[in-house]
Design a protein that fits this description.
CATH architecture of the largest domain in chain B: Orthogonal Bundle
CATH superfamily of the largest domain in chain A: Periplasmic binding protein-like II
Oligomer: heterodimer
Radius of gyration of chain B: 26 Å
Distance between the termini of chain B: 43 Å
Radius of gyration of chain A: 26 Å
Number of domains of chain B: 2
CATH class of the largest domain in chain A: Alpha Beta
Mean pLDDT of chain B: 92
Structural class of chain B: mainly alpha
Strand order of the largest sheet of chain B: 1-2
Number of strands of chain A: 15
Shape of chain A: globular
Strand content of chain B: under 5%
Structural class of chain A: alpha/beta
Distance between the termini of chain A: 86 Å
Largest sheet of chain A: 6 strands, mixed
Helix content of chain B: over 70%
Order of helices and strands of chain B: HHEEHHHHHHHHHHHH
Number of helices of chain B: 14
CATH class of the largest domain in chain B: Mainly Alpha
Mean pLDDT of chain A: 88
CATH superfamily of the largest domain in chain B: MetI-like
Low-confidence stretches of chain A: 25-56
Strand content of chain A: 5-15%
Largest sheet of chain B: 2 strands, antiparallel
Shape of chain B: globular
Chain lengths: 469, 308
């Protein structure tokens, strides 16, 4: 018998080998070894089992928490070294993933592989579409978190149609205020002790604070009326005094005379800068992102929340020393109105996420512990959603902060339910298109309001939310 | 009929060696076959089904018939804008790109000093990733900080809002497309080198000048390559995504730079309208088929193949 291997046999062997290797590679991976061998924690006396809606995970299972932004990372890194965090984590392992964008969330949920917990995202979209876990029973059974600990509005906004999906576990506080750089204000010959309170007066400041060179380049400007919180339809509505989305009725009110007034007013701000110049300026690194131009001292004023003083101090201390905060503007016919809105960021739990119980313990720690509160406050500039913690905070810790701490009791109008429309993102995108057209004169403010109303009604219907308003 | 029956019967009675050969053949082709079925055919058929549904990737799809298609034509003002933007871009960028590439190839085919060096330079933009291209042009074209406007300001000229004015956004995208024609230039260079020298020699003897030789010999002999580049440019133009998405992530001022594919992506991943996005994808397929067939039909009148 010949011991020579024929070409056919050689190819057959290679083919079968390659096929087997491919099949082996496609096969489900063997169970990964658990992070630690039966930790002593498991032997400790355990509390009565807490009710859970997700399958209980074995000890030593990973707890995955994704967040949409990147600035939480230093605080989480520090927290992971604390005994309190380790206690909350127990025998589990922790997987923290910052900077997850909208596509990342969506594909993970659609693919059935979301993390256990998520934060800094479009919460309502996932609440409305039923991909989040109702944590009502977990909260009821918890000895570490309860309704009474939290600011009312951020707590209530974690609910959707009677079910609780979000724990205000990251931050919360007053969202509206006009922050301005007192150094630039003084240089423009304005009095930083008398900030404008109406859009009309603010436009006067904006004109004086906008500086162009001989070639028409914008060296500095007053306010981008759509930067940061000012870009949200909620803010326009609160400032001008109407409700743009009626959650109970599922109706949008965009074609409203007040929206028309807002579009007209904000287009005046853009005209002062120049629509082309503003668009160009925003495309440059360091001037394009949320609040960037303020930190670069190119933008002199910005409508932001309580986090602005802290974030600015941490990111740009030299700019922070001149930061001041005052009431966000209202139109002249509403002069005297002091508007505010309390909202925050949640930890939500995905239905398909693994180890929801483990994640809930982390959420309890993040929401209810001063250790977590301190780390985030010092390293990120965000406050926890607990009034008890607010009483510990000094208003002079971050320039401009005192205004926000006082605003809760001084506000005359408070928006209770922000960002509740499931097509909030769609409407914001449409407004961004039409407001540019209004500023360029290719559309009137009236036409813009009618157009966005029509688009919102159509989208509402086509997304299956019911009949249009 | 009898022969068919016989053939089927034979297939059952084929020798063990033949069966083994067939099985081996199937085994060898199976990686591709599985890949095709799982990663091409299944998504293709799925997207056709999804285009007939209301589907947000989270909840199960709900069959709504042709509603997504009807919405595009009757109830979606952005679609009209996007179609206008895309047709403007494709209608100008594809022919301009092909003409530029053809002229550059002719220059690079002539006997100039440093020809290889020039060829490499002109090809270079084609191998730069689109993300990098976008970043470079961002720095060049910005109205305030861009190099081109910086130079214009230095000589006292008016700045040009290339990327920040609705009138300039599409021409800027076309300009960037025309800049990166290295791939088409290579195809044209190959075609030019295939033109028989004897034709030029005969024309020269007949007294034809350079322009007449170009018009009557070079262009007709290169028409197959022109057709190829035109068709591929049209298809690539309709599918252009990375550059507009990087330069104008929000669709550009007044939605002036929102292209078909960026709008499709926005519907799928921002508005969670995967059903509508699938309808957009199938409509794009039909649009591309229409233009491709149109080119091939009309090519009978202007494309000259060797031996015609």
């Amino acid at each position: 018998m010949s011991k020579m291997i024929t070409r056919r046999k050689f190819l057959t062997t290679i083919g079968i080998g390659a096929g087997a290797a491919t099949l082996a590679a496609c096969a489900a991976p063997a169970a990964a070894p658990t992070a630690a061998p039966a930790a002593p924690k498991a032997a400790e006396p355990t509390k009565a089992p807490e009710p859970t809606l997700a399958p209980a995970a074995a000890a030593g299972a990973p707890v995955a928490w994704w967040v949409g932004w990147g600035n939480l990372t230093p605080a989480i890194d520090a927290l992971q070294k604390t005994p309190e965090f380790k206690d909350a984590l127990g025998a589990n392992t922790f997987e923290f993933k910052p900077g997850v964008n909208a596509e990342g969330w969506l594909t993970a949920v659609a693919g059935g592989t979301p993390p256990a917990g998520g934060s800094n995202m479009d919460y309502v979209q996932f609440m409305a579409k039923g991909s989040l876990l109702d944590i009502g029973n977990l909260v009821k059974a918890s000895s570490k978190v309860n309704k009474g600990m939290f600011l009312a509005d951020p707590w209530n906004n974690g609910f959707w149609q009677g079910k609780q999906y979000g724990l205000p576990g990251l931050e919360a506080g007053p969202n509206y205020g006009l922050n301005y750089n007192s150094e630039l204000v003084k240089a423009a010959g304005l009095d930083p002790d008398k900030p404008p309170t109406t859009w009309e007066d603010l436009l006067g400041w904006h004109r004086k604070l906008t500086v162009k060179d001989a070639s028409g380049n914008v060296k500095q400007f007053g306010l981008d009326p759509y930067d940061a919180m000012a870009g949200e339809p909620d803010f326009a509505a609160t400032s001008y005094g109407w409700t743009w989305y009626d959650e109970a009725a599922g109706k949008h009110d965009i074609n409203n005379p007040k929206m028309v007034s807002h579009l007209k007013m904000t287009s005046e701000f853009i005209k002062v800068i120049g629509p082309d110049q503003l668009a160009g300026l925003r495309k440059v690194e360091g001037n394009g992102g949320w609040g960037d131009a303020y930190n670069a001292k190119v933008q002199s004023m910005i409508i932001e929340g309580y986090w602005h003083p802290g974030e600015t101090k941490i990111q740009k201390p030299e700019v922070s020393v001149n930061n001041r905060a005052a009431w966000a503007p209202v139109p002249a016919e509403r002069a005297g109105a002091k508007i505010q809105m309390f909202n925050g960021h949640y930890i939500v739990f995905f239905k398909d996420g693994k180890n929801s119980d483990g994640m809930f313990k982390i959420a309890e720690f993040m929401s209810g512990s001063d250790v977590a509160g301190d780390a985030i406050w010092k390293q990120v500039g965000w406050l926890p959603a607990r009034p008890a913690y607010y009483s510990k905070v000094k208003g002079n810790e971050y320039p401009g902060l005192q205004f926000y701490l006082d605003s809760g009791t001084q506000a005359t109008e408070t928006l209770r339910s922000p960002r509740r429309s499931p097509i909030h993102g769609f409407v914001t995108t449409q407004l961004s298109e039409v407001r540019d057209k209004v500023a360029r004169g290719s559309m009137t403010a009236e036409q813009a309001a009618i157009e966005v109303q029509k688009r919102a009604d159509t989208e509402w219907k086509n997304q299956g939310y019911g009949k249009a308003a | 009929m009898a022969s068919l029956t016989k053939s089927i019967r034979n297939s059952f009675t084929e020798s063990t060696t033949q069966r083994r050969t067939t099985l081996l053949g199937l085994l060898f082709v199976s990686p591709w076959l599985i890949g095709f079925l799982v990663f091409t055919l299944y998504p293709l058929l799925s997207s056709m089904y999804y285009s007939l549904t209301r589907y947000d990737l989270i909840r199960p799809p709900v069959f709504i018939g042709l509603d997504n298609y009807i919405e595009l034509f009757t109830d979606d003002p952005s679609f009209e804008t996007v179609m206008r933007n895309t047709l403007f871009y494709v209608g100008l960028s594809a022919p301009l790109g092909v003409i530029t590439a053809f002229l550059m190839a002719n220059l690079l085919n002539s006997k100039v000093v440093g020809r290889s060096w020039f060829r490499a330079i002109f090809f270079f933009p084609s191998i730069i990733p689109a993300i990098v291209t976008a970043a470079v042009w961002q720095f060049l074209l910005n109205i305030q900080f861009g190099a081109i406007n910086g130079y214009l300001q230095q000589i006292g000229a008016q700045t040009i809002p290339f990327l920040s004015n609705p009138s300039w956004t599409k021409p800027s995208l076309i300009m960037i497309h025309v800049w990166a024609q290295g791939g088409a230039v290579v195809v044209f260079l190959a075609a030019l080198q295939d033109v028989p020298r004897s034709l030029y020699e005969a024309a020269t003897v007949d007294g034809a000048n350079a322009w007449q030789r170009f018009k009557s010999i070079t262009v007709p002999m290169c028409t197959p390559a022109i057709l190829l580049n035109l068709v591929t440019s049209f298809i690539a133009g309709f599918q252009n995504f990375t550059l507009p998405n990087q330069l104008f992530p929000d669709g550009g001022p007044s939605l002036s730079a929102e292209m078909y594919t960026t709008y499709l992506y926005r519907n799928a991943f921002t508005y969670l309208r995967m059903g509508k996005a699938s309808a957009l994808a199938w409509l794009l397929f039909l649009i591309i088929i229409f233009f491709t067939v149109l080119f091939f039909r009309t090519s009978r009148n202007w494309v000259h193949y060797g031996g015609d």
